[in-house]
Amino acid sequence: MSGWLCRFEKYRSDKLLLDTRRAQLRVMLDRYGYARSDDRVIPVLNAISELESSLGEAEKELDSYVASAPTPREAAKRADEKLFLTYRYLHNMTMEETAEEMCVSRDTVYRIRRRIAN
Question: Taking the model in full, what pTM does it have?
Fold first, then answer.
């Protein structure tokens, strides 16, 4: 699993844990009538505080990743460019052969070439 995917999964599990801790705190305060200063409540409050802090940092990091990730259209263009370069220059194919291998028109191959050149 990639590093970013691990971070997203950890964020998700931490968020679920935070919801669980908040529910636990509500039960302790409402049902059992514990005070916030009770020795049994303090560890739960500390855990909630730590989770909120780490989740806040993780949200900023993940937001920056999402903002910098290419759109699906950009990713498709990059994949087409990579295929074009592979067929045309590594496999030494003509433009027509490259178009046929990529299952696109010859005009599209020329557009991809122009896009790479710019």
Answer: 0.60
Give the pLDDT of the chain (118 residues) as one tens digit per residue.
467 778 888 889 999 999 999 999 999 999 888 998 999 999 999 999 999 999 999 899 888 888 888 889 999 999 999 999 999 999 999 999 999 999 999 999 999 999 998 8
Burial of 118 (0-12, 13-18, 19+ CB in 10 A): exposed
Question: Is 97 within 8 Å of 87 (Cβ atoms)?
Answer: yes
Question: What are φ and ψ of residue 36, in 5° steps?
Answer: -65, -20
